[in-house]
Amino acid sequence: MARRVGVIGTGQSKYEDHRNDVNTPELVREAALAAMSDAGITPGDVDAFVIAGASGFPEEISFSENWIGPAIGASGKPLVRVHAGTNVGANATISAFFQVASGAFDVVLAASYNQRTIEDFRFNSMDCCDPLWDLGFDYPQSTLAGLQARFYLSRHEGKITEEHGAMVAVKNRKNAVLNPCAHVRSEITVEDVMNSSEVASPIKVLDCSRVCDGAAAIVVADEMKARKLNPAPAWIAGVGACSESRSVPYVDMAYPESCVRAAQQAYQMAWVYEPASDLDTVEVHDTFSFQELIWCEALGICEPGTAGKFLELGGSMLDGELPVNPSGGVISTNPEGASSMVRQIEAAMQVMGKAGDHQVPGVRRALAHAWGGAIQYSVVTVFSSGL
Amino acid sequence: MARRVGVIGTGQSKYEDHRNDVNTPELVREAALAAMSDAGITPGDVDAFVIAGASGFPEEISFSENWIGPAIGASGKPLVRVHAGTNVGANATISAFFQVASGAFDVVLAASYNQRTIEDFRFNSMDCCDPLWDLGFDYPQSTLAGLQARFYLSRHEGKITEEHGAMVAVKNRKNAVLNPCAHVRSEITVEDVMNSSEVASPIKVLDCSRVCDGAAAIVVADEMKARKLNPAPAWIAGVGACSESRSVPYVDMAYPESCVRAAQQAYQMAWVYEPASDLDTVEVHDTFSFQELIWCEALGICEPGTAGKFLELGGSMLDGELPVNPSGGVISTNPEGASSMVRQIEAAMQVMGKAGDHQVPGVRRALAHAWGGAIQYSVVTVFSSGL
Amino acid sequence: MRHITEISSKVEPVTFVEDELELSFRYWYGEHYGRFYAELRDNRRILGMRCEKCGSVLLPPRPYCGFCHAPLRTWVELSDKGAVDTFSIVHTPNAKELIETPYACAMIKLDGCDVPLYHLLGEVEFKDILTGMRVTAVWEEVRKGALRDIRYFRPSEQRSIRSD
Amino acid sequence: MRHITEISSKVEPVTFVEDELELSFRYWYGEHYGRFYAELRDNRRILGMRCEKCGSVLLPPRPYCGFCHAPLRTWVELSDKGAVDTFSIVHTPNAKELIETPYACAMIKLDGCDVPLYHLLGEVEFKDILTGMRVTAVWEEVRKGALRDIRYFRPSEQRSIRSD
Ligand SMILES: [Zn+2]
Ligand SMILES: [Zn+2]
Questions:
Q1: How confident is the model over A186-242, as pLDDT tens digits?
Q2: In this structure, are residues A31 and A19 in contact, taking their beta carbons and an 8 Å threshold?
Q3: Would you say residue D162 has pLDDT above 50?
Q4: What's the mean per-residue pLDDT of chain B?
Q5: What is the domain count for chain D?
Q6: Residue A196 covered by a domain
């Protein structure tokens, strides 16, 4: 990179099933003001803004810069909007990173959000289909996730079981109790998960995250500004993004190449050679419990088929050798368009030592992972306490 | 900027009222392959891709990376999607520019497109309204453009007339005859425009662009790669983007601050002090004829209220002192989501001396302008033949 | 598996696929808009906000200033009279056909407000509409809490201009 | 213009606004998909494409290889039999309610093809579905040129597995 870039502030709104007390601009403002306050700056100090637009339908109005811009202080400032599936928030941060690294701007704020405008939940993740190919099936993400989970279980028969999925949910829900920002903060048991009703087999209700409304924001700055404003910024050491872009049938769902490649890009940039030992904690995008295991393998943290064993042995627990989702993960807090930025925020907070009760001791390098679309688009960010 | 970035290849698809002979990925592929061929590279040489997503509605399916990615060689490569109004193509190029300038990638391809999927034309530019404010009016862009034109005429009464709008259309339609890529290539007269039916007064049918289907692509590279691949790249000397983000009522439509500020950003970066003399040609986003005059003033090319006189005296003609829209502009070719990238392509081609019959002699610096949304979001790019 | 080298000329290609969608959206207003629309509905009052920092009087009412980003606290009651800033006679049908064409629309600067309001013009011949023309809101009898609780703005009488 | 310092407690705030949209989309297929769907409709034939560069046999048929980006020219006829790569029993109603829940869906690898096809499973108890299970397409009598011209895939008889 031409210039070093660090996270100097993060902010999250209150998450609720429905945030009907505010309008969308006010919701985004809540997170943006928190991030600026955390960074010790005001809107006037921000050189440029990136807004993460949610996928088309949950937001009828496309011109988010028009109504959200003024709420976060972006009026009259450089602004760009990125779009993607559920990984859009992570992409927004990476866009902000490129802008600062390029030398164009010193301080950039990226914001992401989710406030559902369509009452019928079925429309909220409907647009996975390729209109030229499988429009007639109209499957939502949960169906793809069910196919993915079964594919993964079949490939590693005897090594990965349905209980492993349940154990992920149990672990992450337990971690969420320690995270004051988390949406769902109550513990469950493996039995609860196994006995919960089937959504798309082998996925059951308690294997799924519960979608909520909320917003997140992150402030990044160049090295000079970052050092001035923050005694211990979380440096962005590596970024990667990859879409397999092959329509659903091409994707190896149990070991998605997009995730492997996004990680490779980020690892190369961050000088991560042995993910399992070079990283101190990771936040992965566990919209569905099984996915935590799949991402850990595709990220090179566990060998294929071993993520279940790693979990059983406590390796991914909050006090394990490589805690996974210490924040409670997406399964505890899923403000869809913002969830992937929340992973980055949580990873950055771990690096800055500001994670409070769910802080992993001595984190020097943390990874944030995100997926989106039809399980074919992955984004990876690595944060570091040193340069 | 940390690294210099140059345009090394551009491509445009065939434009037609409706491109029903191909699907959307194939349409984008047409432009992307042309751009790569122009740059002397193949998809394997591209390090990362930026896809410009059109505004929400004309494209039901949001995951453009999923179906368009493989058609342009993006499978397995870093990819991001930017969204905006009609300036989205220009934003995509600027995103590619930041990525290369940051040192993350050496060669990035940005692609934009328009293939209407909604038959009812009225839905194609409906989403200007702020849902919290003026949803009950449901006005399209042409209504805003009519209000804008009247506001401009009133402010400069006696200096700007309806005939000036007509003269812009006549000039640009004439230039388009010389541009083999243009969509509408036939001349009209001022009488034709003045006698054409009213759309949103003072705007008449022939003051409006005719929307078409088509795609555009642009390849940018860092200085070393650019020099190696292209004897005379068009260097990106300055970029600017600004959303007034204030809901429609706040915008000074006759002299939009977003345009003034975007230009200021780009001029500062490109060391442009006197736009009228430092620039050799400009391509502005003339979706409606009057807008060419308004943008020229906001860009600092003419003093407020003098763009009509400048036009009358031939200053903006193809052989004038500062030719405006030598390509024929948006009024002759409007593939909505791609139109703003086409401005950049035409400006870059002028700088590279590759504009053919509509080449302006001796262009060293050219500007591309774009607007989007509710006339509140502007993007400016300055290209230069030297560094 | 057989290889096919030529495209059979016997089949008529399928050229497109169609899809239909019916969507219902709900946007939450929050406190400020919520009060604004309620006052419009219940009391025919148009409320704006004043920025104590830059002095602007703004619509729509929001908890922050669109000009200088300051937090806003001061509500002000605006007049339902004002002047036409710009106007247009629209012949293009709107997407949702909420308004019959042709119609006249305008940006109207309400007295005391620094930003114009988009609305419709009525009780006036198109040819008589002028920039700067004084107008007065005509309210709907049955109001729902929306900008269109004002039916349109009509030209103010000469007398009422003086007396404003 | 009057200043208002306190929010009147008399008005009940307006809390949200609703909007409805009915949209019709038309997606153009282009030559390759156009032929694919026509063969499905007229001849119950499933056509794929072979990449001469990397050897992959691909669905959907496109003029370029999704794996290696090479242009594709060679059409191949695929079998309407294959094996279940993965499956799921779905209880969530789909947005457009095209399929009644619960239903079984699967990724199916057609014989001779390198990429699986998403489709439905039928004529089978949910509990009997297995990864690797051999299946055969059941075609609709009236076909429109769409993937759902195949009603679903049903388990192949033992005999037919052998004879394939
Ligand atoms: Zn102010
Ligand atoms: Zn191939």
A1: 999 999 999 999 999 999 999 999 999 999 999 999 999 999 999 999 999 999 999
A2: no
A3: no
A4: 92
A5: 1
A6: no
| Residues C29, D47: C-beta atoms closer than 8 Å | no
User: Is D18 within the bounds of a domain?
Assistant: no
For residue B33, the enclosing domain spans 5-120+210-384
Strands ordered across the beta sheet of C74-78: C57-58, C46-50, C74-78, D2-4
Domain region containing D49: 31-157
Antiparallel, parallel or unpaired: β C74-78 and C46-50: antiparallel
Contact list, D19 vs chain B (CB under 8 Å)? 131, 135
Instruction: Read off the pLDDT of residues D47-59 as tens digits, 9 standing for 90 and up.
Output: 999 999 999 999 9
B97 inside domain: yes
CA dist B266 and A212 (Å) reads: 40
- Domain with A235 in it: what CATH number? 3.40.47.10
Our CA-based measurement puts residue C69 at a distance from the nearest CA of chain B, in whole angstroms, of 11
SS3 C27: strand
Q: From chain C, pick out residues whose CB is under 8 angstroms from the CB of A118.
A: 23-26
C127 part of a folded domain = yes
Beta strand C74-78 pairing with C57-58: unpaired
Q: Which chains touch B (3 or more CB pairs under 8 A)?
A: A, C, D
**Most A CBs within 10 Å, among D92, D96, D129, D143, to test the A interface:** D92
Whether residue C74 lies inside any domain: the answer is yes
**A171 found inside a domain:** no
> The tokens of C138 are what?
């005509």
Tell me: the pLDDT tens digits for B74-110? 887 888 888 777 888 999 999 999 999 999 999 999 9
Closest partner residue to A75 (CB to CB) among B95, B117, B244 is: B244
- Report the candidate in A251, A153, D34 with the shortest Cα–Cα distance to residue C7: D34
Whether residue B152 lies inside any domain: the answer is: no
Name C46's Cβ contacts closer than 8 Å, sequence gap at least 6.
C39, C40, C59, C77, C78, C79, C80, C110, C137
How far does the CA of residue B105 sit from the closest CA of chain D (Å)?
20
Residue D8 lies inside a defined structural domain of this protein: no
Those residues with Cβ within 8 angstroms of residue D7's Cβ, 6 or more apart along the chain or in another chain: C35, C75
Best mutation target, D27, D53, D59, to test chain B (most B CBs within 10 A): D27
DSSP string, D88-121: EEE-SPPTT--SPSSEEEEEEEETT-SS-EEEEE
Supply the ipTM of this predicted assembly.
0.94
pTM score > 0.90 for this model?
yes
Determine the pLDDT at residue B57: 47
**Which among B26, B60, B201 is the top mutation candidate for probing chain C, defined by the most C β-carbons within 10 Å of its own β-carbon?**
B201
The DSSP result for A27-40, as a single string, is HHHHHHHHHHHHHT
- Number of structural domains chain A divides into: 1
- Minimum distance, in Å, between the CA of residue D30 and any CA atom of chain B: 4
Residues, Cβ < 5 Å to ion ligand 1? C 51, 53-54, 65, 67-68, 70
Name the phi and psi angles at B237, rounded to 5.
Answer: -90, -25
Instruction: Nearest by CB to C25, from A19, A25, A60: name it.
Output: A60
Mean pLDDT in residue range A299-327: 98
CA distance B57 to A214: 24
DSSP string across A56-89 = TTT-S---HHHHHGGGGT-TTS-EEEEE-STTHH
Is C27 in contact with B249 (Cβ distance < 8 A)? no
Mean pLDDT across A246-273: 88
> What is the torsion angle, in degrees rounded to the nearest 10, for the CA atoms of residue B272, residue B276, residue B281 and residue B283?
90
Percent of chain B with pLDDT over 70: 94
Cβ of B200 and C89 within 8 Å?
yes
Give per-residue burial for A128-162: e unless 16+ CB within 10 Å, then b. bbbbbbbbbbbbbbbbbbbbbbbbbbbbbeeebeb
Distance (Å, whole) CA A207 – CA D47 = 38
CA of D161 to the centre of ligand 2 (A): 30
